[in-house]
Specification:
The complex is a heterodimer of chains A (76) and B (134). Chain A has 76 residues and is an alpha+beta fold. Chain A has helices spanning 3-14, 45-55, 57-61, and strands at residues 19-26, 30-36, 67-73. Classes of the chains: A alpha+beta (76), B alpha+beta (134).
Chain lengths: 76, 134
């Protein structure tokens, strides 16, 4: 599976109901992700990022996912 | 007893008011996100310590995972607390929160993420710290 879809699936799995858009910023392993999730409600920005980054931890630990730029928001 | 890597990282966080764990050095960042973090903090002219994580990437990933629940680099610590990675640091730079945390004036024009803003011989900056792989 392409990493873009893989990352989307992992984040959606960790944050059910979240709106996840993954963009390839270069080479297929520098990705950017916009995540809108109700689970972020009440969390600090860093904790919101932790939820997203920990969801893809296995991919980033191996270096398969070289970098992931994260933008989080709470649904309106 | 020889301190563990985790203890040494905790010590660095405690001893340096502003600490950047990064890939490469401020003069020669080895990754775009580390470069973004350097570019965000450098214009404030505050003294900061930088640790190149590349010589011990995996052990440092484990150590910072345990200390701060964060396993990617860069990581910016201010006053003993993890502020975030490149995205959060940039957002906080733009919002003025970074200036507040650093206790410094927002640079004018606002800190840019362009590499040419970096000065290799900035006298404010402490020398990079190296941790040897043990």
């Amino acid at each position: 599976m392409a990493l873009v879809e893989d990352v989307k699936t992992l984040i959606e799995g960790a944050l059910p109901g979240a709106k996840v858009d993954v963009f390839d910023e270069g080479g297929g392993n520098h990705l950017r992700v916009d995540v809108t999730a109700s689970q972020f409600e009440g969390l600090s920005r860093i904790d919101q990022h932790r939820l997203v980054k920990n969801a893809v931890r296995e991919r980033s630990d191996t270096g398969e996912l070289h970098s992931l730029s994260v933008k989080t928001s709470v649904p309106e | 007893m020889e301190p563990t890597l985790k203890q040494r990282v905790k010590q660095l966080i405690a001893e340096n008011r502003v600490l950047l764990l990064m890939k490469g050095t401020p003069e020669a960042p080895a990754c775009g996100n580390s470069m973004r973090a350097v570019a965000a903090i450098e214009p404030y002219g505050v003294e900061y310590a930088a640790l190149d994580v590349l010589p011990a990437l995996e052990p440092l990933r484990e150590a910072t995972g345990e200390i701060a629940d964060w396993r990617t680099f860069p990581q910016l610590y201010i006053n003993g607390e993890l502020v975030g990675g490149a995205d959060i640091v940039e957002e906080m730079n733009e919002s003025g929160e970074l200036a507040e945390l650093l206790g410094a004036e927002q640079p004018e024009p606002p800190a840019m993420s362009a590499k040419e803003e970096l000065k290799a011989d900035d006298p404010q900056q402490s020398p990079p710290i190296q941790i040897e792989r043990s």
